[in-house]
Amino acid sequence: MTFTAGPSLRRRAALLVVTALLAVLVTAPADAATKKKRKKKAAPVAEVPRPHDPYQVTFSSSDGVRLVASWRPGPGGAAAPAILLLHAFSRERRELTELADELADRGFSTLALDLRGHGESTSKGGARVGLSPSLQGSPNGFPRDVEAACAWLRQRASRVGVLGFSVSGNLAALATASGWAEAGVAVSTNADWLESLAGTRPSAPRALLVLAAEADPGRVESARALDAAGREPKSVVLYPGAAHALELLRSEPAAKTAAFDWLDARIGPVARPPDPVATAVPADPAAPPAEAAPAAAGGGEIP
Predict the structure, then answer these.
(1) What is the pTM of this model?
(2) What is the DSSP code string of the chain?
(3) In this structure, which topology does domain 56-267 adopt according to CATH?
């Protein structure tokens, strides 16, 4: 016997097919969107084991980033001025230890800071803070870290200076422009980022020394532009070669001396008593003449 489907059954079958096709079409874009979202999710930042830092301190930025730094109080305690040391992009505070030691020898306290996304400053409310090139021009990132660090130092030092490398040279300029610090040194900076980093903050630096190598691409022009935008006292010093950022201070002793002398002259430590020196006491002209010394045995005078 042959069975022939009636019109009603055929319509039901057709409706089931259409329904199934619609379900596939609706689900496919949703699955694709989910996959796209999954692809955009940033990979977790790997923990990097680091040796214990006996000088480590922590404090928070205004937007809740947990900032980690190394604090080395100077010999003068709270009366000593402090230098905020800022590493270059994709570096970290620990490479500035040698500079901190040398500044301590000059009587300065130092705070070497890990900027957000760098070193150990990678936490905000329990979430990981990643490292993004966009931070180099964001007014809501690094500048907040520097403002928080300078405020932290204000409670522990008489005066504050900032020494920054590469993009952090702009942060040193910004700190002096905003009144967070009394003086700054910018090494190998790219001034093109300054305005975007400043946002609505003042951007005309004051008491800023700018150092750069003549063959470091674009840095001479940036140094001169930063100096032209600044207020007195200000200075630019150029050196031969192409050394960049911290390497400039390492390869050019004169550059390091210039940086330290600038900070010394602007916010230098309280005067320390000089080492005692044996000197002859001048004779008092009003005093009676001294009696002659007795003659030595065997005749003659003691010379």
Answers:
(1) 0.75
(2) ------HHHHHHHHHHHHHHHHHHHHHHHHHHHHHHHHHHSPPPPPP------TTEEEEE-TT-EEEEEEEE--TTGGGS-EEEEEPPTT--GGGGHHHHHHHHHTT-EEEEE--TTSTT--EETTEEPPP-GGGGG-TTSHHHHHHHHHHHHHTT-SSEEEEEETHHHHHHHHHHHTTS-SEEEEES--GGGHHHHHTTS----EEEEEEEETTSTTHHHHHHHHHHHSEEEEEEEEESS---THHHHHH-HHHHHHHHHHHHHHHPPPPPPPPP---PPPPPTTSPPPPPPPPPTTSS---
(3) Rossmann fold (3.40.50)
